[in-house]
Amino acid sequence: MPEPQSRAAQILGERLKAVRLERGVSQETVAHLADMHVTNLGKIERGQANPRMSTIVRIAGVLDVDPGELLAGIGLAELPGVDRVNVRDLIDELKRRSK
């Protein structure tokens, strides 16, 4: 069964596509320069793929954008699955229980 599509992947894909269109280049051009298949780039732009960090950095480099800009603001809430707890929440809960 395929992994559920995450909001994180959708956001990344939308941002990549927006930058690519802003630069006025085709998926084929970006894929060629990033040394990847155009089908894979299309899946990433549609939020249907969860690219590796190296792929994100490579595409960002080709598009001349900081990879951090593409990932800014994407957090645990944008990932599918069970409820996520961060360290701050855990510490607060442990403090609450110890009172």
Automatic annotation (TrEMBL):
Any one Pfam family match given in the protein's UniProt record, by short name: HTH_3
Cited SMART domains: HTH_XRE
UniProt keyword Cell inner membrane present: no
Start and end residues of each HTH cro/C1-type domain: 16-70
PROSITE patterns the record matches: HTH_CROC1
Domain of life assignment: Bacteria
UniProt keyword terms in alphabetical order: DNA-binding
PANTHER family for the chain: HTH-TYPE TRANSCRIPTIONAL REGULATOR, METHYLPHOSPHONATE SYNTHASE
The protein, known as: Helix-turn-helix domain-containing protein
